[in-house]
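Notebook entry, structure prediction.
Reason for the run: the old model in the group folder had no record of what sequence produced it. Starting over properly, with the input documented here first.
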Amino acid sequence: MLFIALLFSLTALASLAHRCGAPGVANWPQRMRLAMAVALLMAGSDHLLTPERYLAMMPDYLPAPLQLVLFTGLCELAGAVGLMLPRCRCYAAIALAIYFVCVFPANIKNAMDGLQVAGLPAATWYYWLRLPFQPLIILWVLYAGELIGRSKTAKNRAQAGEHRLSSPAKK
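New structure, fully documented this time:
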């Protein structure tokens, strides 16, 4: 749930930056993409710098928990970079959507077993409240990756319109 709050806060900051004239955040997918990338850079870095915080979240049936925590951190970092690269954006969004599905069992484990991790609430209700937000995160990354949202025809028309405006008119 802290991740969702971070996404909304960073998106609001990107929207404010757009109002102040900052380039690269002119539309919602761009703002949401930047927010997701920054949030993933923060989360991925935390996975690598303090993996012990995440070990308690790992379901017992998964092998090599430390290596999996480090791998998830690398996935988050790679996904953040991929979202920001236009040629990789769609692939990164798909990979991150799959990633967010794959980490959902750990969220269920936390809700069922409770959790005592530094920097996270100890209340059980927090982990139950987190569960319904996972689909929102998946939709967020797919929208930020421009895989859902605007229809393909609307996107194609917009690109064609931009192209016509920048090309000399043919008679």
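Summary: The first helix runs from residue 2 to 19.
The old model has been moved to the deprecated folder.
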